[in-house]
């Protein structure tokens, strides 16, 4: 019914004798649609739009037409109640996948039933009454509720014309409207808006709205990833003006009045050397009863007031985004790197959690207090690890002289807490994080696997304790709060876990339907220092439920804790800033009814926003890392390395190198006689008898690297495998 530009069709031009009511009913009968779609299809001007609305109103009032999610259906079709609200999340050459908005799974959509829907579109889907496709229901898009029209991709020259290839579907080439190339050249990373839509993908037309630079440069690809999610380095003018008031700000005597004065405590920070937004500091003392641990957090809520421009912008961003050597901060630098950052030898306003622990490391008591502190030194993880290993230099001894008396107590307390953590079955899953080494121009020149030392693990454990205290405090008092929730794996994820363990030859029998954390920890221990270690760690991580923020306390499965929240990073996470605000009111003796009225709805909104923004930030960080890894691989084409098979599919195998670079080896390059996938973890050549299994070592050559897609291809070294 639509022509390529989405205006009135020729059919309507030929049926001018039809009433507008008939036209609207006919259109909705054969193609359920929104008000906007009806206006585009049936009206040429404002008077025409009014006639469309009058006709639609008559049809609704007479019971001929009904609507769901803003999409109109004819009542006699009986389809409205069968429609499932979804979001299109994946688009292939001839298919798509949508996720149900209620979180109950995905639906496979054959290409001819997509109605031209693009990734990010909200759609109504009608499920087919037919067998599931590879574990998914199958259906068709009946209507597009809301259209996502901005995409990033690459400008490519095809048959003499510049076309747009979206990252969301690299097999698609979308024509660019004449005169709207935006200065793009072949091979540029660009952003484009769909300005004309049709019922098929090949009838969409785009306009280039931003040119970033060569798609062969990871830093340009990263910029495009940020742009696609509307994440900007620069802050709105109103926010800039608010932040400028804190330029070079120092804590005054008036601001310190009434706070717990901890400036005499040997408090210090421990972070990476490059960290500038320092929001946590620690102090540890041995006392007759055991230990006193202080976790001192930047009091961001003092500076960022509810409803202010700074607060609204922080809420919108939800979190800082970190990738490569860059950070897109949640708060302007005047706060994040300035007055809120617990910089060395500067008086700073803090929110302290002061904890008492016994000689076995058990938490016996805690209290929260608004405080003023002075960090003695900017500690660095690598330096502390060197000292803890007994390899400290005279220079380091001098640097840490004011705080080093705490080190024995810190180490002792950490070891006690580590033992308790293990005793309760807390899973220590290696995430396999990688550090990207960039040159002065921002190009990736090396990859190094991140190794967690004692200092990193120690600070993680101390922060965890403060987070636990904040959640316990809120739950006991039954006040509105933002909790960090991690639920046990669901049935689908457990099925994946069982399959993974079975295919790796690991016992997958558990005492109950859901494995306990201790049972999972035992599995992790059993594969340490074996070829399956990385595979099981990664697989188990993927089988876990996704942690999120909620207003209700549901505990944390992975940490084996009843109480958990995020209290320790308010400079970079809005969830933490939100609960600081609630805790501040409690310390000021605000009554429960007022707290409920003030924060009841706020914590629901903050939880939802923080969860959504966290997912977006993680997707950007991972995708950007893939681009940088591919950029590194570009400089090592033709070189040979030993790797471990980290994944097996019908199409081929994935191989991970020691430095964390992962690439794909097509099955065709393994053997000329063909392969079969057996047991889900092994490719087998029935002619030669060769096989390639999860965990096997293999020598590979880096043969291709696509920076734009973050993809690296390997081939087996001839004669070595």
End-to-end CA span = 57 Å
CA-atom Rg in angstroms: 29 Å
Quaternary arrangement of the chains shown? single chain
Shape: globular
Compute the number of helices. 20
* Low-confidence runs: 1-14
The helix content, as a percent range, equals 25-40%
Task: Report the sheet-strand fraction.
Answer: 25-35%
Structural class: alpha+beta
Report the major sheet. Answer: 5 strands, mixed, barrel
Side-by-side strand order of the widest sheet: 3-4-5-7-6
What's the rounded overall pLDDT mean? 90
Strand segment tally: 33
Descriptive account of the structure:
By secondary structure, the protein is an alpha+beta fold. It is 32% helix and 27% strand. The protein is built from 20 helices and 33 strands. The strands form 10 sheets. Strands 3-4-5-7-6 form a 5-stranded mixed beta barrel. A 5-stranded antiparallel β-sheet has the order 10-9-8-11-12, with helices on one face. A 5-stranded mixed β-sheet has the order 13-20-19-16-15, with helices on one face. β30 (682-684) and β31 (691-693) form a beta hairpin. The protein is globular, with a radius of gyration of 29 Å. The model is unreliable at 1-14 (pLDDT under 50).
């Amino acid at each position: 019914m639509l022509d390529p530009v989405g205006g009135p069709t020729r059919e309507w031009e030929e049926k001018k004798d039809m009433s507008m009511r008939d036209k609207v009913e006919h259109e909705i009968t054969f193609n359920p649609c929104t008000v906007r779609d009806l206006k585009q299809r049936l009206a040429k001007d404002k008077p025409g739009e009014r006639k469309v609305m009058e006709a639609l109103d008559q049809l609704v009032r007479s019971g001929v037409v009904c609507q769901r999610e803003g999409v109109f259906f004819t009542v006699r079709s009986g389809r409205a109640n069968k429609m499932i609200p979804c979001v299109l999340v994946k688009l292939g050459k001839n298919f798509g996948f949508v996720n149900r908005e209620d979180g109950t799974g995905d639906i496979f959509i054959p290409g001819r039933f997509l109605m031209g829907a693009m990734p990010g579109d909200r759609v109504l889907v009608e499920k087919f009454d037919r067998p599931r496709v590879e574990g998914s229901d199958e259906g068709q898009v009946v209507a597009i509720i809301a259209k996502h029209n901005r995409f990033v991709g690459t400008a490519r020259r095809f048959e003499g014309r510049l076309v747009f290839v979206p990252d969301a579907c690299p097999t698609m080439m979308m024509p660019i409207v004449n005169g709207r190339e935006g200065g793009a050249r072949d091979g540029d990373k660009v952003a484009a808006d769909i300005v004309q839509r049709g019922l098929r993908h090949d009838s969409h037309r785009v306009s280039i709205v931003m040119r970033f630079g060569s798609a062969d440069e990871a830093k340009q690809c990263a910029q495009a990833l940020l742009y696609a999610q509307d994440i900007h380095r620069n802050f709105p003018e109103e926010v800039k003006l608010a932040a400028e008031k804190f330029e070079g700000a120092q804590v005054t005597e008036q601001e310190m009045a009434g706070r717990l004065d901890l400036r005499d405590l040997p408090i210090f920070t421990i972070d990476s050397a490059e960290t500038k937004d320092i929001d946590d500091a620690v102090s540890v003392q041995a006392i007759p009863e055991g230990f006193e641990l202080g976790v001192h957090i930047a009091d961001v809520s003092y500076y960022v007031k509810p409803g202010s421009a700074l607060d609204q912008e922080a809420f919108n961003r939800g979190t800082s985004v970190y990738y490569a050597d860059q950070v897109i901060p949640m708060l302007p630098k005047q706060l994040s790197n300035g007055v809120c950052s617990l910089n060395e030898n500067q008086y700073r306003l803090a929110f302290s959690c002061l904890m008492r622990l016994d000689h076995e490391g058990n938490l016996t008591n805690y209290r929260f207090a608004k405080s003023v502190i002075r960090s003695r030194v900017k500690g660095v993880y690598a330096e502390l690890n060197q000292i803890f290993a007994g390899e400290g230099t005279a220079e380091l001894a001098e640097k840490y002289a004011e705080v080093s008396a705490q080190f024995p107590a810190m180490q002792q307390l950490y070891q006690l807490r580590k033992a308790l953590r293990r005793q309760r079955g807390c899973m220590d899953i290696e995430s396999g994080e990688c550090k990207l080494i960039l040159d002065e121009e921002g190009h990736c020149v090396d990859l190094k696997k991140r190794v967690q030392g004692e200092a990193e693990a120690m600070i993680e454990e101390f922060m965890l304790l403060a987070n636990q205290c904040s959640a316990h405090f809120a739950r006991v008092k039954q006040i509105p709060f933002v909790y960090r929730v991690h639920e046990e794996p669901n049935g689908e994820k457990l099925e994946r876990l069982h399959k993974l363990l079975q295919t790796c030859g690991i016992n997958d029998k558990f005492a109950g339907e859901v494995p306990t954390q201790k049972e999972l920890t035992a599995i992790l221990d059993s594969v340490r220092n074996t070829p399956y270690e990385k595979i099981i760690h990664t697989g188990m991580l993927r089988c876990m439920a996704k942690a999120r923020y909620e207003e209700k306390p549901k505990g944390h499965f992975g940490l084996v804790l009843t109480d958990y929240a995020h209290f320790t990073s308010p400079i970079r996470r809005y969830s933490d800033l939100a609960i600081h605000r609630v805790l501040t009111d409690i310390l000021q003796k605000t009554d429960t009814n007022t707290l409920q009225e003030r924060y009841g709805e706020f914590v629901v909104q903050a939880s939802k926003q923080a969860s959504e923004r966290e997912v977006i930030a993680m997707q950007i960080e991972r995708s950007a890392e893939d681009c940088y890894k591919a950029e590194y691989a570009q400089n090592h084409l033709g070189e040979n390395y030993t790797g471990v098979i980290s994944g097996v599919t019908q199409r081929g195998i994935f191989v991970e190198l020691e430095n964390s670079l992962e690439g794909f080896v097509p099955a065709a390059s393994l053997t000329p006689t063909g392969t079969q996938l057996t047991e889900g973890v092994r490719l087998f050549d029935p002619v030669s008898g060769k096989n390639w299994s999860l965990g096997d070592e293999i020598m590979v050559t880096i043969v291709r690297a696509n920076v734009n897609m973050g993809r690296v291809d390997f081939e087996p070294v001839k004669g070595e495998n």
